[in-house]
Request: fold
Amino acid sequence: MKKHNFNAGPSILPREVIEKTAQAVLDFNGSGLSILEISHRAKDFQPVVDEAIELFKELLNIPEGYSVIFLGGGASLQFCMIPFNFLEKKAAYLNTGVWANKAMKEAKGFGETIEVASSKSANYTFVPKDYVIPTDADYFHITTNNTIYGTEILTDIDSPVPLIADMSSDIFSRPMDVSKYAMIYGGAQKNLAPAGLTFVIVKDELLGKVSRYIPTMLNYTTHIENGSMFNTPPVLPIYSALENLRLLKAQGGLVEVEKNNIAKANLLYNEIDRNPLFVGTAAVEDRSRMNICFVMAPGFESLEADFQKLANERGMVGIKGHRSVGGFRASTYNALPIESVQALVDCMKDFEQLHK
Ligand SMILES: *Cc1c(COP(=O)(O)O)cnc(C)c1O
Reply:
């Protein structure tokens, strides 16, 4: 049976990317060797890194003065590298969920940490909007897409201090104005590549300003100066990322990608809003296009397991909500075809017929 992969992360990748990766594992560039058994410094591999960086710059329209680097350690390692490299006195954070909290927790070890606003009391179902960013903060940190709660900041906000964004789960989902950010980072395993790769886009003028000693491996400058080759980078996920970036470009770039993502999100949200058995959990104005969260409507709570069962029978994978939230979460990343969203919508409609 065809599977509809709504996993939140690691998550769906385009079939073409998986096939190209499999081919490179068997025989990289017709070299007779697997990509798994060559040096990251091999003359064949350097062009992979170079082209991936070029495509980051091209697809995201990254202005001059920014570096793109590929690291290990996940977004979670960035939670500590950011304050290590940039927090001298004070940092500001917007608390929009678990990931934002984890980022803020690390900063506390390095200096004063200000939580400018939080939606915790509403279980992070919205993104706070009325807040003041302290103008004496070294940076302001946001999480643009809150993977667990299905909220998203879809505008590139203006910040009076350097803006740093965790875009683990919505990078490459829409065109954006990189010039509004001092740094953008994320784990690649949601919308770009297999697990193991972390991307960092950082404005060069932000670097070298803190007075503390930064261990070599945790210093962004090390990785910029060495072209992400100070130590062995995650070779295979970088290769998959390259294939995915080539595909995004062939699809017409992020303008086209965004149209597709809007169509998918509208299809599912419209059904959630129409179907009396279900209700969306995120505030309408903050609804994510990448992670769509919903629960059984009041009075129908006892049907949750039945719906899960029907969805399983129809090949839906990964629609169970995060353990801290419950209900359902359909992740609709770039690679998810609209046919899969339609299949879920059909499932919801049929379930309504069975139970109304
Ligand atoms: C998944 C996720 C993370 C954690 O990423 P790791 O690469 O596992 O450290 C951080 N932030 C957001 C928004 C995420 O979705």
User: Anything to note?
Assistant: Residues 254-274 form the longest helix (21 residues).
